[in-house]
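Encode chain A's predicted structure.
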Amino acid sequence: MPARRVAGVAYVYVDGQQYPLRGNLTVSIDTIEREGIPGQDGIHGYIERPRVPFIEGDFSDLNGLSLVALQRMDDVTVTAELANGKQYILRNGWTSTAREFNAADGQATVRWEGMAGEEVL
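Encoded structure for chain A:
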């Protein structure tokens, strides 16, 4: 059986500009979530709710990475390219959560949320 790359090198782009990805890249393009409804006599079904898709990762403080520029991001397109060849696109995105640099590690965790996400096959 030939070797197959499953994980490793990955890239993140925001409106075509590459960001210095450090690690812990998480991609979730789901737009719905379901929660089971248990009853005393068995499972009654589930509740379906909208969910906000996101791309999140740790980024090195390189190339002038700016907390202010990150905070101002609105209506951006975020693309994640994974080592296994998969590509994910988050559309009409914005940064969420507080943007903070960890000076000891020289990195910031950034989360983009968006109106829609897709997997490019």
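The helical segments are 67-72.
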